[in-house]
Design goal:
This protein has 212 residues and is an alpha+beta fold. The protein is built from six helices and eleven strands. Helix 4 packs across helix 5.
Length: 212
């Protein structure tokens, strides 16, 4: 399927979403991969994971980049190498039928999640924010936003030891507003982040950036 959706957050930040309807073979014939990427895909057991991995490369093509521009550090965080005067930051996410990237001149993190009942069972492991949630009103959707916000912040910081439950707090929000803020308290430092979210079919897309 062609590019599903683009969100132009501002002049420096763009989100691209791909809905994966292609077969693995179709995606393999549509992208050019460097040898290290070919080796990495060969170790993946899940065909869904392989398709998502390749869909991310399709998204890079949409902004005139390729797998050759994408590199990962020792902690697995993605980085872009381009000829741009202004360095570009990237964050990557995928879940089932969707893959997405966010590209920006500032630090960014992104997460997309299928809205599922399962999140209720694990909420106590990542969230203390249930105190302001009404279990009868969009409980699953709000929990998914909270998870996505924390995952996005973690991707920005990428520090071992950060606890979603103990170190990242998402401030109260309304789904209709499609934004909130969150605080990271870690290593005796407090950082504030802007959080933005939206629904795509029955998925929740969340992205974060430091609040300036």
């Amino acid at each position: 399927m062609p590019l599903h959706h683009i969100i132009q957050h501002d002049t420096n930040t763009k989100i691209l979403i791909w809905k994966i309807t292609e077969t693995l073979h179709e995606l393999q014939t549509q992208v050019v991969l460097k040898p290290s990427t070919v080796d990495r895909i060969s170790t993946m057991k899940s065909e869904i994971h392989k398709c998502a991995f390749l869909a991310v490369r399709k998204l890079l093509q949409e902004i005139n980049l390729s797998d050759a521009n994408l590199h990962y550090d020792l902690l697995g965080k993605p980085h872009l190498k381009t000829n741009n005067v202004t360095p570009l930051e990237i964050s990557i996410t995928h879940s089932h039928q969707f893959a997405a990237i966010i590209v920006s001149s500032q630090k960014v993190g992104i997460d997309i999640e299928l809205q599922r009942d399962k999140i209720i069972k694990i909420a106590d492991k990542f969230s203390v924010e249930q105190i302001f949630l009404n279990v009868k009103q969009n409980y699953i959707k709000k929990l998914t936003v909270i998870w996505g916000a924390k995952e996005s912040i973690f991707k920005i910081k990428n520090h071992k030891g950060i606890s979603f439950k103990n170190h990242i707090i998402v401030n109260p929000f309304h789904l209709n507003n499609k934004k909130t803020t969150a605080v990271l308290n870690f290593n005796k430092t407090e950082e504030l982040f802007e959080i933005y979210f939206t629904e795509i079919e029955n998925y929740t897309l969340v992205y974060a950036m430091p609040k300036t």
